[in-house]
Amino acid sequence: MKTLKIESENRLASRSSSLHKSLKRHASFFFKYLTVKKTINLILCFFEFKLKIVRCKSFPVYIRFEVCSVCNLRCSGCPLGGAENMSVEKHKEKVTSLIEFKKSINDFIPYLLKINLYDEGEPFLNKEITDIVKYLNQNKVATCISSNFSLKFSDIDLNDIINSGLDHLVISVDGIDQESYSKYRIGGNFSLVISNIRRLTSLIKEKNSTLKVEFQYLEFVDSTIDRDEVKKLAESLDVWRFTVKTNCTRNGWKDTFFKGTSDQRKNLGCYYIWFSGSILSNGTYFACDFGEDIGMEKIGHAMNFLKNKLRNHSNIVNLRKSFTQDGKLTEICLKCPQFAKKEKRNASILNK
To answer: What CATH number does residue 197 fall under?
Structure first.
């Protein structure tokens, strides 16, 4: 058993340090896919962000793509489980086919460093998920999937995940036994999840795969005493990284909106509207995932990103203007739940 190293990350960092930490966190995955075109685009995007240029010539370097808006669990803090304050769009069940995915993402691919293939749904309920990962891997884009992993995987299924070229797999295990786990992961099977992780990490080791498995633990007020036990469990599973997100509530984003002043919120900035974008399972494109969760207006369809010049759609340009010195923040940006997270995110990293 290897010892996990503890690191801390303050989610309310300044704009520049927050961006730096985000890039650092993802760097190990996308550096191996860097091309000259992607490097130039990244540098251009960075300077447009720093100079607050509202009409960008760069392309997004990171995308969150919801490949499946269906889930096998009903977590209380998720819109699929009934959480409040979420966009109606989130309740439309849809599984993205490989053909639909290609149409939606192809305008972005030459510049992308990484894609997160998840949102509220369970990605592995999409039967073409490994084909989607393979397609991205062939096009030199780093991939990440976040899963509850409470599914009956055969050895063939697990081998398909490994052989797809997936770079990063985050598995949420928010308990130390079935009783504590099911308080939030309603409908999940704790023993099945642990068994799946053991089998997967064993196969990864056997195949000498580069797939990184992260064990994520949402820590609630009544589960802080379990942290050490959960850490021991993560160590025994031979995972790459153990992450604890503290001060979580079983209501999810509810009541976690930013409550500071407009100047305070503006000072924190927002690099998402310069660096990233969000695509729903039906191909709808949004400026950012956090705004889309709470009612931000959609920009258009991702498959028309270039054709309709969505990078500089008037809605996104106005959002970027709102973070300039004389700009006025929208109500959604002002109360953004991402910047209301006052907790520290403690990450235990296994150095392999």
So the answer is: 3.20.20.70
